[in-house]
Write a structure and sequence with these properties.
By secondary structure, this protein is of the alpha/beta class. It has a single domain, classed as Rossmann fold (3-Layer(aba) Sandwich). The chain contains twelve helices and eight strands. It has an eight-stranded mixed β-sheet with strand order 3-2-1-4-5-6-7-8, with helices on both faces. Helix 7 links the parallel strand 5 and strand 6. The relative contact order is 0.16.
Length: 320
């Protein structure tokens, strides 16, 4: 990662990703965009028991949506569900327990969901993992790749037939501005070579999510795909994975609700659905997926290679 890219990214972050930046951006938000009822529409949110996922689930529940919370920890999920039901008055909130790092179980969950439910209008891929050291899952895959990339691919691909049968289907993936300092690399998906730096690996995964969104939007044109950066948000995940950053930036970090604002806007607003599919958003606005002058662009061939590798890997662990 070049010094220029690093400096440009931090400068951009300080001016655009903070709490004050959100307050400034929110002055141009159209209030009526979110003054909608989504009763009768169903939303699946991964990592819905804390941080941005929970704030998103709460906002959608208050608008009358049916919410499927996909969470790893049963106790935390049930506690979050109880809070959401109590505050929103909406009982159509369902908990599904799934560890997204367990690849075969992601397939099994998605296939089971399709059998049980007749519709899914919106899929929100929010869950993510930053590892402090390299670890592998039962299938031998590096855990953060399995969670951040392969699970998103499998869940999305498996649920596409259900989404396509539903009205105004959308897929939103929560990425990160960290991806701006990363060029797509497909030669070391499992982080087997070189020193393992969990934050950089995470940023690479977030770049892969952007490319994945762009590619899926091209091949599934009846679904509205989007990917977004929530800004720098004060969540348990950030506090645990990046304690120094969290400590130094604490007063400037956004609330989970501010981080979730664009996710909710992409999920429920009519305005978002009118924008082109496959684009990257920040504060309800389409933005570039690259810093100016940064050499982070990848070739169509490399992007296709990522999709082929994911397809092959996904098939390997599909239960028949």
């Amino acid at each position: 990662m070049s010094l220029y890219r690093n400096s440009a990214w931090f400068l951009k972050g300080v001016t655009e990703f903070t709490r004050n930046a959100h307050l400034s951006a929110s002055k141009r938000f159209v209030e009526k965009d979110l003054e909608v009822s989504v009763a009768g529409r169903s939303f699946m949110i991964t990592g819905a028991n804390s941080g941005i996922g929970r704030a998103t689930a709460m906002a959608i529940a208050k608008k009358g949506g049916t919410v499927h919370m996909v969470c790893r920890n049963k106790d935390k999920a049930e506690e979050a569900r109880a809070d959401i039901v109590k505050e929103s008055g909406n009982k159509e909130i369902y908990v599904h327990i799934l560890d997204l790092s367990e690849t075969k179980k992601v397939w099994e969950f998605a296939e089971g969901f399709k059998r049980k439910y007749k519709a899914l209008n919106v899929l929100i891929n929010n869950a993510g993992a930053i590892m402090s050291q390299r670890d592998v899952n039962a299938e031998g895959l590096e855990k953060s790749f399995a969670t951040n990339v392969l699970a998103v691919y499998i869940l999305t691909k498996s649920l596409i037939p259900l989404l396509e049968k539903s009205t105004d289907p959308r897929v939103i993936t929560v990425s990160s501005g960290g991806m701006l300092v990363q060029k797509l690399r497909t030669g070391n998906l499992q982080s087997e070579r070189g020193r393992y730096d969990g934050t950089l690996v995470y940023a690479q995964h977030k770049r892969q999510q952007v490319v994945m969104t762009e590619q899926l939007a091209k091949t599934h044109n009846t679904i509205h795909f989007s990917v977004m950066h929530p800004g720098w948000v004060d969540t348990p995940a950030v506090a645990n994975a990046m304690p120094d950053f969290h400590r130094s930036m604490k007063d400037s970090l956004r609330t989970p609700e501010q981080g979730a604002d664009t996710v909710v806007w992409l999920a429920v607003s009519e305005a978002a659905g009118k924008n082109p599919s496959g684009r990257f958003y920040q504060d309800r606005k389409m933005v570039s997926t690259h810093l100016p002058l940064a050499w982070t662009h990848s070739s169509p061939l490399e992007e296709q290679k990522l999709m082929s590798l994911l397809e092959d890997l996904a098939k390997t662990f599909q239960s028949h």
